[in-house]
Write a structure and sequence with these properties.
There is one protein chain. This protein folds into 2 domains: 34 residues, no CATH class; 104 residues, no CATH class. It is built from 2 helices and 7 strands; from the N terminus they run αββββαβββ. The relative contact order is 0.17.
């Protein structure tokens, strides 16, 4: 311990002399100081690595990409969507032209309308159906519930694909993109 204090004193003295003299110190000749922040355990104190106990659950992180920057547009499409007995369905859609560009809101939600350009996520509009949130854990409620929601989605011309995603069950509903032009509520094309 005395050697460390002596070394520290020499270093501080040299620093003081060079600091007052106006000359640059030659750092190669100054004593080196190392200060351990914590002591290393002795080799006999190291415990062998063990695997986690069997009851440990490893949570897998969210695999969805983060929300892209919000878009500001005047052209939007309103999707009228339903959740009935566990299935997503498009009921209708309508074009909307805002008087001024509107920024896409960012909110938390179990469901999302997502726009893509190839694999790149261009826009995401999150929403929830009434009585269904990300924390609803009653499968019997979801199997018997029929509810609907209307979601405004900006029309992003560079996107080439759209879908509705249930982020809890990973169920997807593909949407026609770009949406068919029309100023009134239009029924979706008949499908399987």
């Amino acid at each position: 311990m005395r050697a460390k204090n002596k070394s520290l004193g020499l270093w501080l003295g040299a620093l003081l002399v060079f600091g007052c003299s106006g000359e640059s110190p030659n750092f190669g000749t100054l004593p080196r100081i190392s200060v351990p922040l914590e002591e290393s355990p002795a080799p006999t104190e190291v415990e062998p690595a063990s695997s986690p106990p069997p009851e440990t659950v490893t949570l897998v992180g969210n695999t969805d990409p983060p929300d892209p920057p919000a878009q500001r547009t005047r052209e939007q499409v309103e999707y009228h969507l339903s959740f009935g007995r566990g299935a997503l369905k498009l009921l209708a859609q309508a074009d909307h032209l805002q008087t001024e560009p509107v920024l896409t809101p960012r909110r938390v939600g179990r469901f999302a309308v997502e726009l893509f350009l190839g694999p790149e996520l261009v826009e995401r509009v999150r929403f929830d159906f009434p009585l269904l949130g990300s924390d609803s854990d009653d499968p019997s409620l979801e199997k018997g519930l029929t509810t609907d929601a209307r979601v405004l989605v900006p029309i992003i011309r560079r996107a080439n694909r759209a879908r509705v995603l249930d982020r809890k069950t990973r169920q997807q509903l593909e949407l026609t993109w770009p949406p068919p032009a029309g100023g009134t509520l239009s029924e979706p094309p008949a499908g399987p």
